[in-house]
Amino acid sequence: MRIFIGGLATETNTFAPFPTAMSGFAEYGLTAEETRKSPFYGPVGVYRARGEADGHEIIEEATLFAQPSGTVVRATYETLRDRLLGSLRGAGAIDMVLLVLHGAMVADGYDDCEGDILERIRALAPKAFVGCVIDPHCHLTDAMVMAADVIIAAKEYPHTDFADRAHELYDIGVRARRGEVRPVAAVFDTRVIGFYPTGAEPMRSIVDDLMRAECAPILSASIGHGFPWGDVAEVGTRVLVYADRDGAAAAEVAERFGRRLYDQRRALQIHMPGLAEALDTARTRNGQCVIGDFADNPGGGASGDSTFFLDALLDRGVTDVAIGAFWDPMVALVCGEAGVGAVLPVRLGGKCGPTSGAPVDLTVEVRGVVQDHEQGVFGGRQPMGLSVWLHAHGIDIVVCSIRTQVFERDAFTGLGVDLDGKRLVVVKSSAHYRAGFEEAADHIWSAASPGALTTDFAALPYTKRKRDFFPAIDDPWAEYGVPTAQVFEVSPPV
User: Fold this and answer.
1) Does the N terminus or the C terminus of the chain have fewer Cβ atoms within 10 A?
2) pLDDT tens digits, one per residue of 250-265
3) pTM flag (> 0.85)
4) Has residue 469 been placed in a domain?
5) Strand locations in 265-331, DSSP E?
6) What's the CATH number where 134 sits?
């Protein structure tokens, strides 16, 4: 078989104050070779390894990725989309198209970039098996499901299972090409908007049971959590199930898990302490506390330069703490040029708008400089660019030049910061940090600072999403009727 692989991905926070332009994608490389180092490359690496091991011909386009931020510039999206499509068009006859997409990419003029991409691929390769692995924080749109043969979302949050889902997609694609299976999809819209880390109950049991449901005739089952900070018509939590030639079976499973999510909607609401409460709690705990600054998570489109936590630490005189990573390329440049041992005044953070807070003026000592710093992320590496370790008032501060959330401890330790002796570590991340910090932490939780990612979903100023969802309405099924699963059948490959 001839298999075309690649990807185009970013997660769009339409409420973010700055757009996603070509420079955002260029940070992670624009060639196939460069993008193999991208944190989103994992599934494509699986496709390549599996295909080559089976003796298939692989045609690889770049796996383009940009850190989540605001709406993608139209010219940027169209240029990168058309590059992907041009490569496919030039590849000749293709048996399978296997991609990694995000599922919540929004560009100026395109509310559903993934639907647009998949529809155009289907038109170019009508006889190919078309499949993709996506992030669970996706908008599972009708256009996406109608255009693809199979879409599989990562089940875990933190997303530690992208490789597993890529293996799953490859296996289904090969079986479909052989005529052994014919995937039929069903989608159930819960009319809920929420946020669901999968390590805690009741979400843990729901995900575990979802995986157990994947037995014949069920080929794959995914929960599209939705990305609440995307103002699009189809934002929200949906269940997507594929069955072999059996739309009724797919619909039954999709509806069963959709009802379960709806029944648990109040228990699944995210509840976090505020900044002051989180610091009060940390003061009373023995051992190391790790707190995620949920609202300033660049992985959700926040700026990564908010100063609310740092201000509170300084006001309270808290020492023996590490905090980061602040996205402030100018401070990183100035301190990097000054070098280790330099003591100088800086104006840190607070540069991107009201949700960043006010800049903090500090006299800092430069204790570490790494020109091309990086951190681990689910078995890969995440670039952080020129980064510095600063020390002021008993606080160790990490500042980076490439905007990113913190995933693992080496975001700090790679600059020389010793985390083992810290009483408190504050990381700019919503949930992914748990995978890298939980084992060494005595206590770990997220806190709600006044940053960009509010979890008051009922108050988000949607203009395109009808307000027929929980928590805007306590019981939308009672008011608007109980939904049913919608079945989609894509013509099988020839």
Assistant:
1) C
2) 999 999 999 999 999 9
3) yes
4) no
5) 289-293, 321-327
6) 3.40.50.2300
